[in-house]
Amino acid sequence: MPILTLKEAANKIMVALDKPDAAAALALAEQLQGRDCWMKVGMELFYAAGPSIVRDLKSRGFRVFLDLKMHDIPNTVRGGARSITRLGVDLFNVHGAGGVAMMYAAAEGVREAVEAGDAQHAPLVIAVTQLTSTSQIVLNKEIGITGQLEDAVVHYARLSREAGLQGVVASPLEVAAIKAACGTGFITVTPGIRPRGADVGDQSRITTPRDAVDGGTDYLVIGRPITASHNPAEALDNILKEMIEQ
Ligand SMILES: O=C(O)c1cc(=O)[nH]c(=O)n1[C@@H]1O[C@H](COP(=O)(O)O)[C@@H](O)[C@H]1O
Question: Under which EC number(s) is this enzyme classified (predicted)?
């Protein structure tokens, strides 16, 4: 892998702002300001703080990944995508399990909002393949998908590309297979990042930040290793250091 600059490494980080309200999220974001990383707004924060949290983060100069993992009938997802696009986010996700028509509807919703002049730019749309908390055993025995987990991930990646989406969410362990199937330009956004010695928690398919970078991922989604630290800025800086070390 080519050596990354500090700025390039920071550009790859999406900090999962899994906080209960806007005040807590913005206090954390402020501590990380000036480092060029993205902020990810997920269900906990968005359901509490609403659309204004997106505007608050954008006005502070952050790029925003809105992680609401839409999974519904195509018509509903199309409307959801239109509303999300109007918010001005840079990237959002849907569930690959919703199928091609649903994913296509998400892409259409984006186009409709942009063409109607309701949005300045089109956000990237990506599909969740298999959650990084899902293990091989859970996939086979609970979810009921037979075969290898990596094959299930690649299957959804192919479908999402067919539907016109720009990338997927997967674990860093599947990046090489996704890129081989869908091309190097197909974006991989990878949670399941744990620095050595960090608490794994509910994640199942994990790598260190450095292994994720060496594996060719485009973006690393990192929550608790940064946000639960007593010094989030220092935790982020240590991760960045590990990513750029020769
Ligand atoms: O779409 C996501 O962001 C996502 C997909 C996935 O498969 N696994 C996953 O962990 N995530 C999100 O990534 C973040 C990971 O957070 P930590 O486990 O605290 O680093 C959380 O906000 C999850 O909601």
Answer: 4.1.1.23
Q: Is the CB of 16 within 6 Å of ligand 1? A: yes
Residue list for the binding site for substrate: 18, 40, 67-76, 132, 194, 203, 223-224
DSSP 154-187: HHHHHHHHHTT--EEE--GGGHHHHHHHH-TTSE
pLDDT in tens, 216-225: 999 999 999 9
How many structural domains is the chain composed of? 1
Residue 81 belongs to a domain with what CATH number?
3.20.20.70
Cα–chain-centroid distance for residue 240? 18
Nearest atom in ligand 1 to 69's CA = 1
224 lines ligand 1 (CB under 6 A): yes
Query: Is residue 40 one of the residues assigned to a domain?
Result: yes
